[in-house]
Every structure is written in C-alpha cells, then in structure tokens.
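In response to reviewer comment 3 from the previous cycle, which asked for concrete evidence that the modeling workflow produces usable outputs, we include below a single protein chain processed end to end. The sequence was submitted unchanged, and the resulting structure tokens are shown without manual editing.
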Amino acid sequence: MTRSCRLYKKLLTPSLWAAAVLLGFTLALVNAEAVAQGIDFCQLTAQDALSACRTGAMGDSQLAVAKCDNIADTAQRKACQQQASADLKDAKQKCLDQNTARLAVCNRLGRATYDPVIDPANFVAVINNPYFPLTPGTTFIYKSETEIDKFSVTHNTKVIRDVTCVEVRDTVTTLAGELTEDTLDWFAQDKQCNVWYFGENAKQLEDGLIVGLEGSWIAGVDGAKPGIIVEAHPAVGDFYRQEFALGTAEDHGEVLSLSESVTVPLPPHSFHNCLKTEDGSSLEPDVVENKFYCPGIGDVLEIDLTSGERLELTQITTE
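The workflow returned the following structure tokens.
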C-alpha cells in the first residue's frame, strides 16, 4: 500500500514524533561528542578545504605562468603573466569567500561532522511529498527571460547506497533551442516523507559538445553525502544541507515561510500556502535564490536574488 504524505502544521503522529525525536537525539549525541572532544569538525573541514583551495589556486597559477613562458613575443608574454597574476588574486579571494560561507553554515549546523544516517529500509518507492511530488511520466516546464528548463520525471531508477532513487532528467535550453545543460538527478523519499537528494550527473554543452561535468556527484562516492531537498514537515527557520560533496556540491537551504502566495503562468496562475526557501551554496556565495513549492504541484517559481530573474512554471505534461 502506498504511504500518503500529508501536510501537518502542529500535529504529528506518534510514529513521526518518535522518528523526529530519534533523529534529534542522534544529532545531539554527535554534537555532544564533538564538544566533549573539544573538536569542531565542521570548522576543521572548512579549514582543510581552504588550504586545498589555496594550493589548487597556486598550482593553476604556476601552470598558467609556465604557458606564458612559452610565448615568444615579449609583449604578449608580459600580458599573459599579468593576467595570470590577476587570476591568482581572484582565485585566492574566491577561496576566502567560500571559507566564510562554509563557516556560516557551521554556525547554523554545529560542530559535528555531516554524516546523515541512511537506512535503505527506511525509504519508499514513491515520492509524494506534497511540496515536491515526483510522479514518473510528469514533465515540469519552466521559462525565464533567457532559458527554458524541462524537469522530466522518468520511469528509470538508480540504486545509490542501497536506496532505489527516482531519476529525473533536467535539461536547459536557450530560447533559440540550443541545449546548454543536460543533467540526471536522483531523489528518494524516506518513510517520514523527507525527500533526499542522492546525486547528479551534470553535463554542460556548447554547440552540441560536452564541455564540462561541473557539479556531478553521487552519494557514497569520494566522501559525498546525500542531503534533503524538501523536508517532510518544514518549519520556519529550518536550515539544512541539500547536498554535500566537498568542493563540488555544497548547496544548503533555509525555510522562510509556509504561507506564500505565488502567481505564475501555469493555470490557475495563483497558488497559496506555498513553502518559500532561500537556497545558496558555499561554492558560490554570491548566488542566492528563493524557491517556492506549492502543495500538490511542487516547485513553481525560482527567483535569483542578485539579478531578479524569475524562472516560472509554465506547463505540466503527463504521459
């Protein structure tokens, strides 16, 4: 029998209370252990990541300078060296900005390591969280001033850490129809109705050719950990990791409201009692956006807080 996820504001069933208490108790024990040992594992991770970032920046700069040294023309060689120096300065600043962002996350989440307990027996085959339902055969089509995003829930699955995940193909094209991104995302829902993100295979394209795999990760590979995309029972102020592959994928989210009203092109155009989050990344501290998840529909609107650009849900198709 399919388990139904319903919206609760104040009331939880005894079993969900037990699960919530157990999760809170487990996290409390981990944080207590960190405090007892006198070690701030979160800040230690951030510090080591900063050192790695600086080392990488220096390595990239040295390689760039080596390429400059092979330029015969004196003026071109000097210009190349100046550019390499400027790029190194920018890279070092980016390392510092990322470290500041990581430490801000640590201040919200505590000293403990990030190591969520994943029990395959605690996951179900469907994703029916009302804020993020993913029914196979459904495609959500979004449009902004510059691109069209198709979020297609496939009938495919992928087993990650012994959890069967729903596979979603997410493609981004320009308004002219050129494919620029082609990504496979993997999600799974636990019995408490939290929707987890287990990884992605992200391809960036130019002129039909793959030019990058930036942002690709799979939980359980190279230290990567799954995160939560949408909570079972979000509450204002909740702060959580959405993904964690150090140096590759470090998104996080915060619940801002549960009572937002949203207007988008999708009929009936107006939606109410929507979940509003603020999403960011320690890797790109300047990129922050609001997302709006409406009951029974899912993600209907994303707003880039820097540019103000809106990515709006325009159509839903089903097979």
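The chain has two domains: 41-109, 123-318. We consider this sufficient to address the reviewer's concern, and the full set will be provided in the supplementary archive.
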